[in-house]
Design goal:
Blueprint lengths: L16 H16 L2 E6 L5 E4 L14 H22 L6 H14 L1 H4 L3 H7 L3 H7 L5 E2 L2 E2 L1 H16 L13
Antiparallel strand pairs: 1-2, 3-4
Helix pairs in contact: 1-2, 1-3, 2-3, 3-7, 5-6
Length: 171
């Protein structure tokens, strides 16, 4: 059976954060890295810890414990934001990948991006193919984003697709 037509018996109903937290944190920790002093990310945003941006000012510093606490809080918040943007059933892998995607790009941006538009039409395979479209920051294609999107796509597809419109043909 091809990946596109694979049906998933593993969709979690309801999808609880505790069931996907470890996958989300693993993705974020792999791709965000941790810096304990503020820096400008590739998009020019003041950032600290594991990719935390809210209220960060140049010259700020934090402890590892603060960075880890911020990551835990931010991951849960982005997970909840992601769920508000999705109108179709998700597997745990999909939830983890989409949370990482939102964490990186921001939930406001994700609300109107083509990946979420296709997903909300039930076009899971088409949505999976869209991860590779989001590999640019500051107008430049970044190797780190290419790697991140490939991993997010892999995790998104890992459990198969939760409903009959898995081919992404619309309907």
């Amino acid at each position: 059976m091809s990946q596109e037509n694979k049906q998933s018996p593993t969709a979690i109903e309801p999808l609880e954060y505790e069931n996907v937290r470890d996958d989300i944190l693993a993705l974020l920790m792999e791709f965000e890295g941790c810096r304990l002093t503020a820096y400008k990310c590739s998009a020019g945003v003041n950032t600290i810890g594991w990719g935390h941006t809210a209220g960060v000012k140049e010259g700020d510093s934090i402890s590892q414990e603060e960075a880890d606490r911020m990551l835990a809080e931010d991951a849960r918040a982005y997970y909840e934001d992601m769920l508000r943007l999705v109108a179709v059933p998700l597997t745990g892998g999909m939830a983890a990948a989409l949370t990482s995607f939102c964490y990186n790009l921001g939930a406001s941006y994700c609300k109107t991006c083509s990946l979420f538009k296709e997903l909300n039409k039930g076009n899971y395979a088409v949505a999976a193919g869209k991860f590779g479209d989001y590999v640019y920051a500051g107008g430049m294609k970044l190797a780190g984003l290419v790697k991140r999107r490939a991993k997010e796509k892999e995790i998104f597809e890992r459990d198969g697709f939760p409903c009959s419109n898995a081919t992404g043909l619309g309907g």
